[in-house]
UniProtKB/TrEMBL annotation:
<comment type="function">
    <text>Plays an essential role in type IV pili and type II pseudopili formation by proteolytically removing the leader sequence from substrate proteins and subsequently monomethylating the alpha-amino group of the newly exposed N-terminal phenylalanine.</text>
</comment>
<keyword id="KW-0378">Hydrolase</keyword>
<dbReference type="Pfam" id="PF06750">
    <property type="entry name" value="A24_N_bact"/>
</dbReference>
<dbReference type="InterPro" id="IPR014032">
    <property type="entry name" value="Peptidase_A24A_bac"/>
</dbReference>
<keyword id="KW-0808">Transferase</keyword>
<keyword id="KW-0511">Multifunctional enzyme</keyword>
<feature type="transmembrane region" description="Helical">
    <location>
        <begin position="182"/>
        <end position="204"/>
    </location>
</feature>
<dbReference type="GO" id="GO:0016787">
    <property type="term" value="F:hydrolase activity"/>
</dbReference>
<keyword id="KW-0997">Cell inner membrane</keyword>
<dbReference type="InterPro" id="IPR050882">
    <property type="entry name" value="Prepilin_peptidase/N-MTase"/>
</dbReference>
<feature type="domain" description="Prepilin type IV endopeptidase peptidase">
    <location>
        <begin position="137"/>
        <end position="245"/>
    </location>
</feature>
<keyword id="KW-1003">Cell membrane</keyword>
<dbReference type="InterPro" id="IPR010627">
    <property type="entry name" value="Prepilin_pept_A24_N"/>
</dbReference>
<feature type="transmembrane region" description="Helical">
    <location>
        <begin position="216"/>
        <end position="247"/>
    </location>
</feature>
<feature type="transmembrane region" description="Helical">
    <location>
        <begin position="155"/>
        <end position="176"/>
    </location>
</feature>
<keyword id="KW-0472">Membrane</keyword>
<keyword id="KW-0645">Protease</keyword>
Length: 285
């Protein structure tokens, strides 16, 4: 196709195009971060009612990533198309709802910009390649899981498990590493945090992390092989410690909320996948 040929011949246009795509995907990620936890809770509630042999809930209003239409959480105003353009709508509306003038959180444009910049970085690093397309999916998934865990303290299986399998499938063709390296990366990634979890619980009687963290590290191992695990664990632990110290300094010893660890694993994994040991600098034509 002429578009692909244009991208191959002009790296700047390709990076810009992927960056703009990232803005659009960032807008969708905002929807996923808001709705997916509610969808999961709805599903868990329904499963619980079935187990307890209770009648099903009568509310049949569809609630998924597509329906109902996006609306203002303050007044329920249904957003028009021009109110959902990534970044531009937020700037045009001056960060306020067009109906009730309630403020629109800075989080939405920040996620869109972050996704756009990260996507452009991947495009610049990998070019027009299978590895680049795969890393875009990985990056978008890491960003989504980080935001959900930061807000809801969960790492959704519906995202992390398919991405784990995708990493193994890609590496069965040697896209990033060999299949044995990816396999043992997944195994060691899961078992390392699983072991830490049970040692911590045995010593303290408390749970120090969730099972989603095990799966996330296993996913990163499936993508980058066992070689990326030491750097990911080291960097994520350092980031978590720094943030923990800052929170205690600002909030004092009265702060009792658990700190989500998945965002630190995701940030560290992203860094190590791109730059750790030069493992994933592979470009595939």
């Amino acid at each position: 196709m002429w578009v692909i040929e244009l991208w191959r011949s002009d790296a700047g246009i390709f990076v810009l195009s992927v960056g703009l795509l990232g803005l659009i995907v960032g807008s969708f990620i905002n929807v996923v971060v808001y709705r997916l936890p509610k969808m999961l809770m709805q599903d868990w509630r329904q499963q619980a009612r079935e187990i307890l042999q209770l009648p099903a809930e009568t509310d049949s209003t569809p609630y998924n990533l597509a329906r109902p239409n996006s609306s203002c959480p303050n007044c329920g105003h249904q957003l028009k198309f021009w109110e959902k353009i990534p970044l531009l709508s937020w700037l045009y509306l001056r960060a306020r709802c067009s109906a009730c003038r309630a403020p629109i959180s800075w989080r939405y444009p920040l996620v869109e910009v972050a996704c756009g910049l990260l996507s452009a970085l991947i495009a610049w690093r990998y070019g027009v390649s299978l590895a680049g397309g795969a890393m875009l999916l990985c990056t978008w998934s890491l960003l989504t899981m980080s935001l959900i865990d930061a807000q809801q303290q969960i790492v959704p299986d519906v995202i992390v498990l398919p991405m784990l399998w995708l990493g193994l499938i890609l590496n069965s063709f040697g896209v990033f590493v060999s299949l044995p390296e990816a396999f043992w990366g997944a195994v060691i990634g899961y078992m390392s945090l699983w072991t830490v979890f049970w040692l911590f619980k045995w010593i303290t009687g408390r749970e120090g992390m969730g099972y989603g963290d095990f799966k996330l590290l296993a996913m990163l191992g499936a993508w980058g092989g066992w070689q990326v695990l030491p750097g990911t664990i080291l960097v994520s632990s350092a980031l978590g410690s720094i943030v923990g110290v800052l929170i205690l300094r600002w909030q004092g010893n009265h702060y009792s909320q658990p700190i989500a660890f998945a965002p630190f694993i995701a940030i560290a994994g992203f860094i190590v996948l791109l730059w750790g040991n030069g493992m994933l600098f592979i470009k595939i034509a």
